[in-house]
Amino acid sequence: MSKDVYILSIETSCDETSAAITKNGREVLSNIIYSQIEIHKKFGGVVPEVASRNHLEKISYIVDSALEKADLTFDDLSAVAVTKGPGLVGALLVGISYAKALSYSLNIPLIGVNHMKGHICANYIEHDIKPPFVSMITSGGHTQLVHVKSYYDYEILGSTRDDAVGEAFDKVARTLGLPYPGGPYIDKLAKEGKETIDFPRIYLDKESLDFSFSGIKSAVLNYINNQKQKNIEIVKEDVAASFQKAVTEVIVKKTLMALERTNVKTLALAGGVAANSGLRKEFLDHLPKDINFVYPSIKLCTDNAAMIGCAAYYEYVANNFSDMSLNAIPNLKL
Ligand code: KG4
Ligand code: ZN
User: How many CB atoms lie within 10 A of CB 70?
Assistant: First the structure.
């Protein structure tokens, strides 16, 4: 019988300090997440330097907690994995330096993981799916439609040409005076509102699977300014519901096109905005019955180390290891 593979994974690409222990890829023994959101809230967004400092302060404690929760020690580990990009360079470097030190001192392999692959792999933790499938990644920094052909072959079918979808949620939320990050607040308000405002659906050219979200953000801003000038009270709930509907309608239509083009029967959502209840509903209302539709639970949608550990397992079995020259790659592509 082959030996169990225990991976310690570390994620510090943005404003979550997280460490996890995964067993044989998909089994999560612990997934400790320390969110810095409360610290960045007062600045209205993530301050990179502040993020790095907080990762540094917390990382030892978070890694120790992950081991303790999993009831393991450093000696039980098969490998150490870490997010190498995309993300904030200073924040990434905290995790990378820590992982390198562990790999060197414990004499175990080091695995650098692409954060976007991690988001996709979050689906493996709770669902028994395997490639090929289509993944729609909607996060704070990225919007991509991906054909996952195998664990190692990712074809990007479409990307955003300007803002990421999470960014659009956060900017619209800010315009409505909601706290950072605004996505969950928009989600909540939208449930209480009506889709009465006809915000534009931006499809670009008909055949394209690319996205553009800067136009809708401006449209919301213009609407709010217009109403203010006319002294008409803004119904925030309706703005949230109408904005969310316009965005999710475009995402769902393009994803349906991607499924048709690839002739793939499994769809996996990924990234922070996959937590959006309106997006999930829009998919459930429009997906053909023969599509196996999965998405991670909310905790696994947003940044966490378990998804990095899960992605790392497939690199581990393929002997795709990193060496001590591993560096942060802020703009790393899939
Ligand atoms: O994937 P993620 O944790 O970080 C990145 O890698 O970017 O995504 C964070 C984004 C933020 O923009 C946040 O507002 C958004 O995900 N988000 C949501 C919801 N929960 C988180 N957006 C809409 N509805 C939600 N329920
Ligand atoms: Zn992320």
Answer: 21
**CB of 86 closer than 6 angstroms to any ligand 1 atom:** no
| Residue 296 Cβ contacting ligand 1 at under 6 Å | no
- Each residue of 4-40: pLDDT tens digit? 999 999 999 999 999 999 999 999 999 999 999 999 9
152-200 pLDDT, tens digit each? 999 999 999 999 999 999 999 999 999 999 999 999 999 999 999 999 9
Helix 305-317 vs helix 115-126: crossing angle, to nearest 10: 90
225 Cα–ligand 2 center, Å? 32
CA distance 189 to 236: 7
Structure tokens given for 291: 């599509």
| Residue 203: both structure tokens together | 């499809």
Residue nearest to atom 14 of ligand 1 (CA): 183
Residue nearest to atom 23 of ligand 1 (CA): 183
- Helices (H) and strands (E) counted in the chain, each on its own, are 11, 10
Which residue carries 């990382």 as its tokens?
59
pTM > 0.85: yes
What pLDDT digit, counting tens, does each position of 298-328 carry?
999 999 999 999 999 999 999 999 999 999 9
**Mutation pick for ligand 1 pocket among 163, 302, 304, 331 (CB with most ligand atoms within 8 Å):** 302
CA–centroid distance, residue 56 to ligand 1 (Å): 23
In 3D, which of 211, 201, 242 has the Cα closest to residue 224? 242
Q: How far is the CA of 36 from the centre of ligand 1 (A)?
A: 14
Counted residue by residue, the chain has a size of 334
For residue 189, give the H/E element and its range. Answer: helix 183-192
**Atom 4 in ligand 1: residue holding the nearest Cα:** 140
